[in-house]
């Protein structure tokens, strides 16, 4: 990862992820307009906004997931710890081991629970033997708060557990490769309130070790789990501030309208 | 006044019934559609069905029964000298009467009684056809009038029409199923006759196949031998070679098409691959016989190998080429059906494209791929034209792909081609072979369909 070092913008000194002048296009249509953002380490940053506002699109830029969409084009500058992740020398596979992702719908592989968690460590050759792999799997499941519930059936299919358990399995799968950043794209939108509460608790626990960016439709959720909140509207970053500030005293009228439920 | 014309008239009458029924329904409520139980067109179809179905059924029944009734009448009027003839001669006589009636050449001197019988036959047929016209049209009009009279705002025309449609659909599918049953039964009955001549275990487990039986019992090879093992091993050998060609190539091209190819390439390559499926098998056959087999023999000779000019290898290779599109197109479908979320999940963990394919997509698609391969196998086993042209006729029991082998389908063709008597073991053997072949491909298809169904349940 020999990215070309460039002079860093001053305000980004303590930021884990910085975005400058980010534009995203789907074919001729522009989805993200000139977004500047600084995401701090060991914080939960929430992206909120109405449907189609570009918050998921922007999230997917942070681990270059948009590369899998042929017509998608990203302009501007996104850096993680100062390294341009869209630089020519960047290996997208290595980037994604540093920036894990949890998706909207739980998507466990059609393999056993154990194999789901072991998937990442295996493909990256992170462990030398079975005992070490067992340990990584167990640790990840414990950290995802799932181990006690499923420890007797690690060999059963990951698709056979409940939706909330599947989502925590996906989180365990993501943290098994020890990323620095975890991106979560509406991780609770397919779950019931109890499973949602468990995931939210988990997010708060994980903050100590990882930098977390979460996209959510649910404003209460953003208020509960995040320290910073970014409000997106029509592809623009309207306001980005401390969560408390956004929800109590937003400086933009559009933010005010959205959080009070006037649109969206 | 032909039958086609009568049917057209009845259809026209039904169409008229549709308009009458619809108009009548609207009249009864003076145009307020809301007061009707069903839509006006349902009343139209109601009348049309009542007009068309009974009359067409009458025509069908009439066509089946008339010739028998008419002939019974004619026979009853024949002089007793003719009536008391033995059955086979009596059949010939009836044939002559029919030929005489339609003005064809007859096999005997036409005497008075025969001419009279022929004339009666013609007259009876003319009367019968006329009566059919009258009765069918009367039935149509009666159905139309009655159904029109039954129309009332509270008549549940929609329910009746829907139920009638359902019955018609059920009858159609029953015909398809009955055809299958008929094919199986005809195979089974002939096979039973065969097994009366040749014991079942000799057929299934014998290793000597030589179906030519001499005409006189004191000649060499008077009994023939019907051990089918060499045929089935030959079929399996050629199928195996075909699958060794088709599965890797088909699967890999499916992976390329569904995972790597950009839409523009895919739009060109996929139809090109499917052209392979459109080539008539007889063309593959002479490609195998004229191009591939000599090439293999030439190559083998230059390597010092002894290759038969109709080797199993040549037939199997070309059959494999033919099956590639099956494997690739079915596998392409199942690979594309693997949810995008699984791919993203794998990419999100830093897996490369080939790791994702190998560890996530192929395992997820495996049941579907297995089903595709099984369908391709049953297709290969039943394939006839390529092996008729490119595989040999000698029933060698061998696993050497360079030798000539024969297959079940080739033997069925050779047993039935030309003038054959249908009561010798030689001819009946074809039906026994066909039955076994059918059972094998049927069970393969059933297994494949089950596998596919289980696969579908996972992603719904």
Question: Main attributes?
Answer:
heterodimer, A: about 260 residues, alpha/beta, Rossmann fold, six-stranded mixed β-sheet, four-stranded antiparallel β-sheet, 10 strands, B: about 450 residues, mainly alpha, MetI-like fold, two-stranded antiparallel sheet, 16 helices, about 75% helix, about 0% strand
Give an overview of the whole structure.
The complex is a heterodimer of chains A (264) and B (460). By secondary structure, chain A is α/β, with parallel strands linked by helices. Chain A has a single domain, classed as P-loop containing nucleotide triphosphate hydrolases (Rossmann fold). Helices cover 34% and strands 25% of the residues of chain A. A six-stranded mixed sheet of chain A has the order 6-7-8-3-9-10, sandwiched between helices. Chain B is mainly alpha-helical. Chain B folds into two domains: 153 residues, no CATH class; 234 residues, MetI-like (MetI-like fold), CATH 1.10.3720. A two-stranded antiparallel ribbon of chain B has the order 1-2. In chain B, helix 4 crosses helix 5, helix 6 crosses helix 16 and helix 13 runs antiparallel to helix 16. The longest helix of chain B has 41 residues. Chain B is flat. Classes of the chains: A alpha/beta (264), B mainly alpha (460). Chains A and B meet through helix 2, strand 6, helix 3 and helix 6 of A and helix 12 and helix 13 of B.
